[in-house]
């Protein structure tokens, strides 16, 4: 993550009391209303560079969305695997 992106996230975190994870989660969940959310977040913060960084976040969030999906799939696979071993142990 670029340092300017980190700085902007820290500003947003302190001004809006959001965690980086929450910010990404909101952007992912906003879907096609993401741009509105970005403008809202930008208006809540004073530094102009946050606008540019928010657009960068918008691009990055596509990857975050894929990562979250992959993580969910991995967790589900892990649960299935754990269930399988529990079944095997009990039989």
Topology readout:
Layout: H1 3-16, H2 20-30, H3 34-43, H4 49-90
Helix pairs in contact: 1-4, 2-3, 3-4
**Rg of Cα set:** 18 Å
Please tell me the overall pLDDT.
63
Q: State the distance separating the first and last CA atoms.
A: 48 Å
Which percent band covers the strand fraction? under 5%
Helix segment tally: 4
Order of helices and strands: HHHH
Q: Biggest sheet, in brief?
A: none
Indicate the structural class: mainly alpha
Could you please describe the fold and organization of this structure?
This protein has a domain of 62 residues. Helix content is 85%, strand content 0%. It is built from four helices and no strands. The mean pLDDT is 63.
Provide a short characterization of the protein structure.
The chain has 91 residues and is an all-alpha fold. It has helices spanning 3-16, 20-30, 34-43, 49-90. The chain has a domain at 3-64.
Keywords for this entry:
4 helices, elongated, single chain, mainly alpha, 91 residues
